[in-house]
Each structure stands twice: as structure tokens, then as C-alpha cells.
Amino acid sequence: MATGSRTVRPRSSVWLSERKTPRRKGDQQPVGLDHLKIVAATMRLLDAEGLAGFSMRRLAAELGVTAMSVYWYVETKDHLLELALDAAMGEIALPIETVRSVEAAGPVEGPEYTPAEPRDWRDQLRQVASEYRRVLVRHPWLAALLGEYLNIGPNAVVFNHAALAVMRNSGLPDDRITSALALVYQFVYGFGTIEGRFAARCRAAGLTQDELYHEMMGTVADRIEFDEARKVMEARGGTTVQEMQDRDFTFALDLAIAGIESLKER
Amino acid sequence: MATGSRTVRPRSSVWLSERKTPRRKGDQQPVGLDHLKIVAATMRLLDAEGLAGFSMRRLAAELGVTAMSVYWYVETKDHLLELALDAAMGEIALPIETVRSVEAAGPVEGPEYTPAEPRDWRDQLRQVASEYRRVLVRHPWLAALLGEYLNIGPNAVVFNHAALAVMRNSGLPDDRITSALALVYQFVYGFGTIEGRFAARCRAAGLTQDELYHEMMGTVADRIEFDEARKVMEARGGTTVQEMQDRDFTFALDLAIAGIESLKER
DNA sequence: ACCTGAACACCGTTCAAGT
DNA sequence: ACCTGAACACCGTTCAAGT
């Protein structure tokens, strides 16, 4: 109230604005940069230093170039991060039959397909969910960007389409589909987020997951309120952190699937 | 690789370090600031301007004080945000019997209790979940902070304890509890996150939720791949955005509960 | 067409100094 | 005990200029 208020930046999406660099005419690459190289370096830097450690100036240094060069290819930092976001979404391997109809509408770059193609909707759901989880963990910055931007890039569109296609095979009535999608993918999002953050924390501290886990349990163990919580933590079984996480993830998905199965005949 | 790499800041939690200001001796407030006032102003600013618009300098201006004064009460910006995070967690109203055992261990400031006290675990779960959702939407910055910090403040501890207490009444075996908790609360987290972001976007643009929704559908409607998606979007019913969101949320919770009910007798 | 350098308006935080 | 001012090392981005 006191000082002049700053309006929240409008932040139009990359996907809703003109490409900044017009498509190259011939094959002759000029010398230095290009879109692909910039996005790749961005992702490498994000993986290594995290979102907070990323800056346009750091990126330029990484590319061996002056701070402002990148701006010839990319309008703003936000747009660049949106490109990285969609590139990460492209790493999610999808069952091929779920993306065919989309691909027919135009070529899509990026997504990998798994060799084994499950037919049952439950297995397809498990595949898409665990692929999404895998990518969230591999790129711990992805979750924050998903919360920040619209996520309407080409790869995101393919992903959403695939998720929808799988859920439509569940037998759930149409008016329940969005709910079921929300339950499953918001769960995976949250789960992958904290799993990825924990993994990043371990890398930063130079500890294994199990080491950091026990250390955290130690600093917190003297709090009386955690007695009951610890009982449950211990009951969940698994000797390593990774095993516990896998069990939790798998069974949570089973719960969701069981819920869908039990409510689909109404 | 090129330039000297910056290590990721260690970032110790507020809750794991000494209080910066020793407790006041008598009643005589000095003149200016104090912890409560600072955190309250922080939350007000975060609500109004968003996380990206918040800075220590803005906060100081809001408090009518120089930029560095706040640092006498708070170690870093991170610590301050952690305090705001836990204060927000304290706004989640919990069924009173779920927090009694925690309160016995020591006084807890903040949490409100609802007058109606549901006995059935499903209703308790619905209450805790929708309260969590409500707070996430009211404070759109909360989700980002939950992803950033450890969330082990006193109010967070009470919340986790309550969530656990409710789930233990579900009849699920102990080794499934953490999974079920993850499914439900990660879902609510994700759902509340995007709902809150959408609401904030509306406020920033000066539009109602329905206006912005239709505008977004418009800019995106010309994409061929969205045909199938739109069919499902329309099927979910509800005339307003709020109704659609409420329906989606309610039924997704029903799915989770049905899954728990159906898997608890194994 | 592509890249640079200087400059602007911001950050979080340190540190010596005031009262 | 509390608050200030100047300073440091950073940001994202603009803009005029180079080739």
C-alpha cells in the first residue's frame, strides 16, 4: 500500500507468441548458438545447479558467450524456461497407441516410446504414471516450472492426450474422467516432486539417500509427537529409501485404480 | 563447468536453528517491529503480490522501516518464508480429537477447530482434505514454499499428525498408511496448487474465473488435438468454474476413499 | 543476421556505525 | 537493544553500437 504497487507480470506463454528466430533458410548454421543448443544447455545447468542457481548470465557463460547473446534467440528467461519445461515433458515415454491420433494431426518431436505396449488400461496407467514420476525425479526443477507456467507446449499436449486416452479406457463415465485424471496425476506430481527434491538434496550434500534419511530421522527423533508417526514409518517396510518410495508409489496407484474400478459401475 | 561452480546453499531450516531474538523479558514492547508483525506483513504482501513480487526491501517499505531492520528479527529471507509457511499451515482447521494428543505434549498456537466434529473417518478425511485445499487456494504462494522447504514447523507437525490419525481409523493395515496418505494429500496439494494459481491469475487480470476460463478455452480451441479433450471437459458438467472444480475435487476424493475401502480387507 | 558493452533498476546480505 | 546507510556481488533486461 505504501509504495507504488508493482503489477504481476502478464507473462504470455512462448507457445502463444511468435517464434523469435525465423526458421533458418538453408543449411548453413551461422557459427554460434541455436535454439536446441540453448535449451540443452539450460536443462544441463538446471539439472546441475537447480532452478535457484540458474541465471541468464550463468547460461551465457556456459555457452561461452556474452550475457546478452541468448536474447537474440529467446524473448525472456520465462520463455526459455517454458521451452525447457516442454522438452522435459517430451522425455516421458508413452504407450504408442495413445499418441497415434495426435501424431496424425502433425509431427511431434521428442517423445520416446516404450518397446512393450501394454493393452490393459491399468498397466497403461501405471506406465504413464511411473514415466511421469521418473522424469519429475530426473529433473527436480520440472515440478516448480509446472506450477509456474501454463504447460501447453506440444509435448505437454501429447502427454495430456495420452493420459486422457488411457483413462477413457477405464470404463469410468465421461463426467468422472477429469476427476480421476486429477487424482492420479496430481498425486504423481506431488510424489515425484518431493522424491526429486530429496534426491537433489542428497546430491548437493554428497550423501546417499539412505544416509540423509537416517540423518534427518535423527535430528527430529527427539520430538515427542513423532512417536506415532515413526511407528507407521517403520511399518511401511523396505530396507532402503528407494524401496520404501517404490512401495508407497505402487500401492498408492493400486488404491487409485481400485477406487476407479469400484466406482465405474454406477 | 566453465566458470567456478556455486554450491547449492545448505539452507538450514528455521526450526533447526536458534531463535534469533531472545524472548522479551517484560511487557514493554520497544517501539517498532516484532516477529508477529513481520510475519503478518509478509503474508499480506505474498497474498497481494505473489512470491515473485515479494522482497525484503518491499517488506521493509511496507513496515515503514529501512531495508535492513528486518534482519534483526530474522536470519534470512528463507527463514522468514518458512515462518510464513508454517503460519499458513496453522490456518488449516482440524477435527479436534485428532490434535488432542499433540496438544498434550505442549501448547500449539494457531490452528482453528471446526464446530462440527465428524466421527466417521471418511468425513474426517474429507474435512482435512478440503481445509488443506482451502488454505492452498487462499495463499497461492503456499504451494511453492511447501515444495521449497522442509515443512517441519509446529503447525505442520500438528497437521501431519492429524492426517495420520484420521488415516489410521480407515482400517488400512499399517504398512499401507503412508501410501494412502501420499495418494490423498499429494492429490490435494496438486489440485489446490493449480486452483490457487488460477484464482491468482484471475485477480491479476481483473477477470472472474469464468471469464478467464472461457478466454483460455478460446485461445486454444483452434488446436485440433483438443477435440477429444473438450468432449470430456464438457461432460464434467457444472455451469461455473467453481462448480466444476468442486465436483472434480469431491469425486476424486470419493475415488480415493473407495480405493481405500476396497483394499483394506486383505 | 548475429553478437557485444555499458547501463538501469532491481535483488539478498555484510558490515561498520549510529542511538 | 534496535535501527540505519553505504557497499558488494549478484540479477533480468534495454538499448545503442559494433561486425
Describe, in plain words, how this protein is organized in 3D:
Chains A, B: Residues 55-74 bind DNA. Chains A, B: It comes from Streptomyces antioxidans. Chain A is mainly α and 266 residues long. In chain A, 61% of the residues lie in helices and 0% in strands. The first copy, chain A, is built from eleven helices and no strands. In chain A, helix 3 (77-89) runs parallel beside helix 7. In chain A, 37% of the residues are buried. The model of chain A is unreliable at 1-10 and 23-29 (pLDDT under 50). Chains A and B meet through helix 2, helix 6, helix 7, helix 8 and helix 10 of A and helix 2, helix 6, helix 7, helix 8 and helix 10 of B. Chain B binds a DNA duplex (19 and 19 nucleotides) through loops.
Shape of chain A: flat
CATH class assignment of the largest domain in chain A: Mainly Alpha
Helix content of chain A: 55-70%
Question: CATH H-level name of the largest domain in chain A... which superfamily?
Answer: Tetracycline Repressor, domain 2
Order of helices and strands of chain A: HHHHHHHHHHH
* Low-confidence runs of at least 5 consecutive residues of chain A: 1-10, 23-29
Beta-strand fraction estimate of chain A = under 5%
Oligomer: homodimer
Structural class of chain A, by secondary structure, is mainly alpha
CATH architecture of the largest domain in chain A: Orthogonal Bundle
Number of strands of chain A: 0
* Whole-angstrom Rg of chain A: 22 Å
Largest interface: A-B, 85 and 86 residues
How many separate domains of chain A? 2
Number of helices of chain A: 11
| CATH fold descriptor of the largest domain in chain A | Tetracycline Repressor, domain 2
Mean pLDDT of chain A: 85
Characterize the biggest β-sheet of chain A: none
